[in-house]
Automatic annotation (TrEMBL):
Region ranges (Disordered): 1-25
GO cellular component terms listed in the entry, alphabetical order: cytoplasm
Key words of the record: Coiled coil
Gene Ontology terms: biological process: cellular response to lipopolysaccharide; positive regulation of canonical NF-kappaB signal transduction; regulation of transcription by RNA polymerase II; toll-like receptor 2 signaling pathway; toll-like receptor 3 signaling pathway
Bias kind Basic and acidic residues: ranges: 1-14
Protein name listed in UniProt: TNIP2 protein
Keyword Transport: no
Length: 135
């Protein structure tokens, strides 16, 4: 293992000597190439950071919207059940009517569609992160 490391060290020293022995214009050209490459990578990273932040913010916003929609639907369903109980004078074990079932179905549909949207955004976010890693 020591011999292998020594060999790698010699190779690196050879590369360094090659760079030192290059004419100044070739060194400058290499430096410019590396600087350009670095600038491109930094720009790509900044762009992906902005996109990731944007997607994260949108995901959080959708999650808050989903929570408030679910809360509102639950509240409406309770109000509807209470109203129906008062109107009919029945006990608490009354079977929910079709109207309250429709409200509950609407709640489930809204929650499902928002969750699907969140999943899509998370997938897109993951793909963008993979592209950034690839770049």
């Amino acid at each position: 293992e020591v011999q292998k490391l020594n060999q790698q060290l010699e190779e690196k020293n050879g590369e360094i000597q090659q760079m030192i022995n290059q004419p100044p214009y070739e060194k400058e050209r290499e430096i410019l190439r590396l600087q350009k490459s670095l600038a491109e990578r930094e720009k790509a990273q900044a762009t992906s950071d902005v996109l990731c932040r944007s997607l994260t913010d949108e995901t959080h916003q959708l999650q808050r919207k989903l929570a408030s929609t679910a809360e509102m639907c639950q509240h409406l369903a309770k109000c509807l059940e209470e109203k129906q109980r008062k109107e009919k004078g029945n006990s608490d074990d009354q079977i929910p009517t079709e109207r309250s079932n429709q409200v509950l179905l609407l709640l489930l549909y809204n929650e499902t569609s928002l969750q699907a949207l969140i999943c899509n955004l998370q997938d897109e976010n993951r793909m963008l992160k993979e592209k950034v890693a690839h770049v």
